[in-house]
């Protein structure tokens, strides 16, 4: 979930990729917020040219109607001001792209994807040519015609078969391609080991359970000092997103699709069990913050500042903030998979990721150039050099480089091995324990109205955290009824 801020966390092992692939369907997202077919076609000459990216050879004698010969303007997603290193990388990419394609003017867009704004942006023709989005949005954008159908461009792309299917498949809807994978994550739990050590609390096994999480959180919490053992997100859609990991671990589902009908399924025994665990964290362990209404930035900030021992997120975000803003040391940070409900369960975490989508209102030439820009550094030596330069600059600045777990390429590919070789050269690249990689179990988010569901579940989480005597089953049933009547009953699945 991209609004939950940049999730992701190291190169996944080949075993992880294989295991997670079985969990991924070709259309596993949708919905809106935290949160089409386009009618983009291209000429053969244009689609073939799309394979030319980054350091790959360009065609010198381009056909007259090739996009590389025309004056074209595209607007692109540009990182927010707080992401200084990412902006530097993007600026370098723009410079190199223009050296190769001087006919293209690139406009930096300061608009960050917001599912509550995308319809307005599309209606006013103000959306960028190339914009960022996250895993839940594939079906949502495709069905509303807010993502271009780039199937022809993608099929002509030289490296399409080397794209990581765990990510790329999330934007293949009914056999058509609507987005370009960037990076992904499986939600995990990031632990401040120093806080555990300072309280004399034993560090749990990576193969941990809900009981281990609860007992650890309870032991490290110090309410008199305003220290919590864990900070589950308690506001915004990220709250419902956090909780959904526990629903999955308990064996539950968000919704079922059968006979063309979508039915709410989160008010199951598994849903009750997952909310009861949250109730225990709040009322039995007294382990959550007194002010539990924390969004992504609040919770991660509290963790990086040593005010909570554990936070649930795509691990690279907290790790980066802890190392580069919180002054933490690598040895003080432990990245865990999500805990399994019991000894017989799995370490299931929500599978999400970051994607680039091309505006269907753009011309064919603009779409083609947007595709070339999106994939410009993919599988290229120039892209590798750019990443290494970023690592070196961070080292010069006394900062760490925190790579994503799941990249747009597969870890086992030749290019994946080249990337790993670069990482292994530097001591300021954060390394995750290999042990957790074999434990991760990624599960895609729901196909329909994912963000509406997250928003609804946030109300349940807040109710559990604020009311000791809440009727959990009744609360879930009420939410399921609302989701069913307002959203699911209006969906007809082909």
UniProtKB/TrEMBL annotation:
Signal peptide feature range: 1-23
Highest taxon above the source species: Bacteria
One Pfam family it belongs to: SBP_bac_1
Region (Disordered): 35-64
Alphabetical keyword list: Signal
Protein name according to UniProt: ABC transporter substrate-binding protein
The keyword Signal is annotated on this UniProt entry: yes
